[in-house]
Amino acid sequence: MENILNTSLKSYENCVKCGKCLPACPSYNFNFNEFFSPRGRIRLIASEIKDELPLKISKFEKSMSACLLCGRCTDICPNGVKTGPLVIEEKFKLNKLKTDKFSIDNFVLKALKGNSKFLFSAGLRFSNILKFNNLNIPKPSGKSFILHNDLNFSVRNNITKNNSEDCYENISIKKNSYNINEEKTNENDENYTDINNQITSAKPQIKEEISKNNLIKVGYFSGCVFNNIYPEISKSTVSALNKNNISVFVPSSQSCCGLPHISSGDINSFKKLAINNALSFKNKKLDYIITSCASCSFSINKLYPLYFCAEEKNEAKEKDRLEILNFSKKLIDIWNFFNILKKKGIKIKQGNLDKKLDVVFHIPCHLKNSADFIPFSKNEQLIGEAGSIIDNINGLNLKPLKHNYCCGNGGMFNIRHYSMSKEITKKKFSEIKEAIKETDKNKETTKETTNQETAAQVILTSCSGCILSLKDQKNILENDKKIPVKHLIEIYDKSIKY
Amino acid sequence: MEKNIVCAEFKNLLGKDRVLSDKEELLCYSYDAAIKESMPDFVVFPLNAIEISAIVKICKKHNIPITGRGAGSGFSGGSVPIKGGTVVSFAKMNNVLELDEENMFVTVEPGIINGDLKNYLDEKGYFYPPDPASFEFCTIGGNVAECAGGPKAVKYGVTKNYVYKLEVITGDGEIINTGSKAIKDVAGYNLTQLLVGSEGTLGLFSKITLKFLSKPAYSNLLIVSFDDVNNGFTAALTLLKLNNRPSMLEFMDNSSINAVKNYFKSSLLDIKGDFLFIIEADGTLEEVNSSINLYKDILNKFSPILLFAAGNDAERSEIMNARKAISPSLRTFGDLKINNDIAVPINKIIEILTAIKNISDKYKVPIINFGHFGDGNIHVNIMLNKSDSEMVDRGEEAKYEVIKKTIELGGTISGEHGIGIIKKEFMKLKFDDYYINLMRNIKKSFDPDNILNPGKIFD
């Protein structure tokens, strides 16, 4: 079999230096210095590989570490140059050369690797105290989503019609309402109680209805940010799935997807995390594994197959590798999942908002539509698969963004190059402000100035990194105003009822 | 040259962030889309004419070459600093300075991307036609310096037809303003048009004033192919005689049809034949429909084997994707491409293609041809394997013969990419010594110390 990783790592030879990647690159557009362009990086890498020119490591690293791994250059390259894997490979080589100095980003990476909630929040708090690089690291908005046990969210347990207004109530962190699977599932996978059985024991009267609907069982991959910093997004995702008659299984042993590690060149940790994640979902008889984070889906769908493409001679390792590929195949982002339901003719619940809401949707670089995606509605044409959910929420008014610039997060980029990252965010907000201004203009002309209709404007997106970056609005808007940032699934979840 | 002294002078002028002098950074400015590379000594990022003038004066004082650079996407090596020295990057000068809607002129800084200007005007209902294949990333400054063309040239002309005014810094560091917004302007020599296509050898642009048009409301595409080359050729010439001639008339010969056929699988298009055209009509909806019908009637008389008008946007983009697939599909023929952009009078197209076919057979190298039929500009791609040095030599010989034949037929050695360093050797085939000396003397008037892009076009 062709080794796609090796092919990627040779693809620098295909670069014809046409320059098509320049305008696509967020780090080039920061100050128009080609040293920070994909073409420049490819030239530097070629020089390093061919050993033509002795390069200063610190300087060389500066260019590589400023790559956000957004993949925009690779997407438009007519010659298939894979800048992402090439940059990762260089970072990997550079890491080997570096002495093990303490740095805040290494500390954060270690915290993520252990998936220890204590280390994670300690890491965040620590960086908050240090204000490293003036970096604004957000404080966790609540307890971790995944606690110490596997979670099973079965459909229609704990429904009380009265509090359907606030759906969070249904899945607030209380053991009872979670219906946590107390059995030690990790000991023996075969003993894992089927979600259907769970429901049977909990609410026998619903069984018939569900079997008629051919209940779908999914796993939920939370990702570290939606687990530790914004657990409410994980809750909303699970809740929205439940409300659509989908049972959700959340293994407690899952960890970070590994993207922050690989984007820092730590391929070994990335691989360890991949194995851990794949094994966490093993043998659970799940139809799909869903994530609501675009970066996690990029990491698992695109990078796992790339870094596990080579067959292992060791039998146990090969088994793990196949499990990872299987996991990667099963994992899909939430929008792709809803679109699959749509294709299968399964109706998704229609949501209603009490107030009209003007929104912009920031398309994360890592949110790529599947190759065979054909948009049906205007919203889908504007923002891809996520648009079909916008169709399903009455009262949501989407304002298209003209350029769809990058948010500036780029995983560890945001920590290493904070000021550069914030300049990119500023550029993002320039188009957001433009879209909002147009909304205001339209309102003036149509004289819709009653309080009811001038609802707050919200930035929606679908990626943990983008949310972190877009929420950090210090010195971006005049008078320190803030525009709220939400995950689209939060709005959808709020808008639908059981 | 004392590099440190010059560097300090630049940093004093521009601040340290707008001067690059580390070799890692310089490496990223040592090339463009042509093959040759050469390292500069400095890269500077000016923001206005006054800074450019000061940069030129520093370089003049120390006798350092200056090479202007937009996106570095040229095919002739125009922005490669072959004699080292200073690269002046215009990338930070990328603003629209003035939109004069009454006179229909737009004034821009040279670093603005062609596609960004197109979009800016498009939103206001206007249209800037020149559309080189790289329009999404090449800059207007580079377009003017090389006089870029594109498929729409058949109806709308090329960059030079849109440039009316220039603010230019000469080799003395003086700022001059050429031309005016008056449509008729015959005062003195036409320095504006002399500077268009001068490849950075006469001056550096700091402001460019371009004419724009009203946007055509609608356009549609037609695809047609013929088994008989002569039929196709006569059919296309007939279309060009029409008063409402096509706004695009791209052709692919059988070598490129075969290349695309294997690479581009389309459910819509069964690409076949020996001579294929992609034809565009633009205007109001009625005009487009009547043009398309007229073209179809004419083409049908020449027994086409495929004749197909796009019915909707999806089909239009499918057709354009087939055209765009040519370049990447060429990789299957070799990893080294010698790309020539010869142009001949349109009635000589068949003759040159036949000659190219013979040259391809003689030197046993695949040559793929496609391009802009409407203006006789053919992209002759000689495909070679880098590792096969003997084949590369044969390719070079083939290239020489193609160019000789082109000149014999009254054509030219470059239709839109410019001479730069890549085609410099062919200048003596096209021009005699007297003519080249005349050009040298013109350069001397603009650039007495020969510091502006030295070694380009001629030595």
Automatic annotation (TrEMBL), chain A:
Protein keywords: 4Fe-4S, Iron, Iron-sulfur, Metal-binding, Repeat
PROSITE patterns per record: 4FE4S_FER_1 (PS00198), 4FE4S_FER_2 (PS51379)
Domain 4Fe-4S ferredoxin-type: 6-35, 58-87
GO molecular function: 4 iron, 4 sulfur cluster binding; metal ion binding; oxidoreductase activity
Keyword 4Fe-4S part of the UniProt annotation: yes
Coiled-coil stretches noted in the UniProt entry, renumbered to this chain: none
Residues annotated as signal peptide: none
Pfam families per record: CCG, Fer4_8
InterPro entries registered for this protein in UniProt: 4Fe4S_Fe-S-bd (IPR017896), 4Fe4S_Fe_S_CS (IPR017900), Cys_rich_dom (IPR004017), Helical_ferredxn (IPR009051)
PANTHER family found in the cross-reference section: GLYCOLATE OXIDASE IRON-SULFUR SUBUNIT
UniProt name for this protein: (Fe-S)-binding protein
Organism: Candidatus Acididesulfobacter diazotrophicus
Source species taxonomy: Bacteria, Deltaproteobacteria, Candidatus Acidulodesulfobacterales, Candidatus Acididesulfobacter
From TrEMBL, chain B:
Cofactor(s) recorded in Swiss-Prot or TrEMBL: FAD
Entry protein name: FAD-binding protein
Pfam families, sorted: FAD-oxidase_C, FAD_binding_4
Family: Belongs to the FAD-binding oxidoreductase/transferase type 4 family.
Tagged with keyword Oxidoreductase: yes
Keywords on record: FAD, Flavoprotein, Oxidoreductase
InterPro entries cross-referenced by the UniProt entry: FAD-bd_oxidored_4_C, FAD-bd_PCMH, FAD-bd_PCMH-like_sf, FAD-bd_PCMH_sub2, FAD-linked_Oxase-like_C, FAD-linked_OxidoTrans_Type4, Oxid_FAD_bind_N, Vanillyl_alc_oxidase_C-sub2
Taxonomic source organism: Candidatus Acididesulfobacter diazotrophicus
